[in-house]
From TrEMBL:
Residues 93-137 form the MYND-type domain. The gene is mss51. Pfam families: MSS51_C (PF20179), zf-MYND (PF01753). One of its GO terms (molecular function) is zinc ion binding. Keywords: Metal-binding, Zinc, Zinc-finger. This is MYND-type domain-containing protein. The keyword Membrane does not apply.
Length: 443
């Protein structure tokens, strides 16, 4: 689950669709929001209730209503209150997990002066925690800046426009190849730095405004997270040897959630136009039970429309349901590629059960598929599950277009921050028969 601060911003920024969610956090849910709440609660008991309180919600039912779009927004009186309550969702002692409500009279939580991100109830807790915290303190400082600057994604300041590609897609293998095509980013970044929304942000945030150089780097990190998804799709197209110039092309984003769809714009995948100029048309269909209502929620195409354009649509439901209800009835095109961003099926029984029909469908229909993960640990656990399902793994490893924005584990801030799309698995079809026949088996 993304950290609660970002989640509260997203709830305010957009309506989220009606979903049938349980009333309490649990691990057997196919909904990542509920699994995320359970993870918070298991890490810091009472933290999920603090988040609800700061969102002015009485219980998980009200949170569900916000996620379902049944409330018109969180009733904060002003930006200062909003940013203050966002910060308060991070206020617990990193040393002993004590929440403000459990402090003794006269005790207050003190924030680390270096990262401005973690809190301690006593100097003793801070001293005892320092051997662990010093390993991540510098990076958590970046996290604290980014989670505030990310608000500019909802004001329209980000993402900033990108340039036409001066290289062929096959020549752009990583960020070091992509960035030089953008020429000088400084004018675009300076325009955001001097804008009214940036001024509003730091006027109301509960911390000093960082230096412009820090803010420039933060803007780029957030931009990279946005572009990481698009460039990962483009990378998968090339790795599978697929040709968007030969015919109109359909990509399904399986397991799409509020992370990808809240505030989503019809232009979010237009970088593919620059990656494959003159293509025959690309359709992106986002499919998932947590798809957020918005302009992209519209029927998929049966036959592709204008060439050299990217068309985005979305469907709210599990992927195998989408397949049965639309693809099998030829009301949606069969995919040339399926991509999943952080499917998380390694994380809980509920998520693997929700994903199982989709994974078997992708295997049995021999569909080129690419999933991304947050870490090497997730990669290893996900590979194990796919191999148990006899899926043919084509390759896996670090993603050259990983997000540059570090993500904090909210309930365990001293864990090494992770990055969106940091690793990938590329798979297609059933494991070849010779790989299934191990030594010592009587076939």
């Amino acid at each position: 689950m993304p950290d609660a601060a970002c989640a509260s911003l997203r709830i305010m920024a957009s309506h989220i669709p009606a979903l049938s969610l349980p009333d309490v956090p649990r691990t057997d849910s196919v909904f990542s929001v509920l699994s995320g709440f359970h993870s918070l609660e298991s890490g810091v008991p009472g933290l999920s209730k603090v988040i609800l309180d700061k969102l002015n919600m009485k219980d998980y039912g009200e949170y569900r209503a916000a996620v379902e779009g049944k409330v018109k927004g969180i009733p904060f009186r002003n930006y200062k209150e909003m940013f203050k309550k966002m910060e308060e969702t991070f206020e617990f002692c990193t040393g002993c997990n004590k929440l403000p409500v459990h402090l003794t009279e006269g005790q207050t939580l003190k924030r680390c002066a270096k990262c401005l991100n973690v809190y301690y109830c006593t100097k003793e807790c801070q001293r005892n925690d320092w051997p662990q915290h010093k390993k991540v303190c510098k990076k958590l400082r970046l996290v604290a800046i980014d989670r505030l600057v990310e608000w500019l994604m909802f004001t329209g300041d980000l993402p900033f426009p990108t340039e036409k590609w001066s290289k062929l897609a096959a020549e752009v293998k990583n960020w070091d190849d992509w960035l030089p095509m953008q020429r000088d980013l400084t004018p675009r970044l300076d325009g955001i730095l001097s804008g009214a929304n940036m001024a509003t942000l730091w006027k109301n945030a509960s911390r000093p405004r960082p230096d412009d150089s820090d803010l420039q780097r933060s803007l780029w990190r957030i931009q990279s997270e946005f572009l990481s998804r698009v460039l990962t799709v483009g990378m998968a197209i090339q790795h599978f040897g697929l040709d968007p110039y030969a015919k109109a092309f359909t990509v399904h984003i399986a397991g799409a959630s509020h992370n990808e769809t809240m505030g989503a714009r019809l232009t979010d995948y237009d970088e593919l136009n620059k990656m494959f100029p003159g293509h025959q048309g690309v359709e992106i269909v986002m499919v998932g039970p947590e798809v957020v209502d918005g302009p992209i929620v519209r029927p998929p195409l049966r036959a592709f429309g204008p060439r050299q354009r990217v068309f985005i649509s979305a469907y709210r439901g599990l992927y195998h349901q989408f397949w049965e209800e639309l693809v099998e009835k030829e009301e949606a095109a069969k995919p040339d590629l399926v991509v999943g961003f952080h499917p998380g099926f390694h994380a809980s029984q509920g998520l693997i059960e929700g994903w199982l029909p989709t994974l078997l469908l992708l295997r049995d229909f021999n569909i080129p598929s690419c999933f991304t993960l947050y870490s090497e640990m997730e990669l290893e656990r996900s590979l194990q599950i796919l191999l148990e399902l006899e899926v043919h793994i084509r390759d896996s490893g670090p993603n050259p277009f990983t997000s540059q924005k570090p993500e904090q584990v909210q309930s365990s801030p001293n864990k090494t921050p992770v990055h969106c799309n940091s690793h990938y698995i590329r798979f297609q079809g059933l494991l070849p028969q010779e790989d299934l026949e191990g030594p010592g088996f009587d076939n």
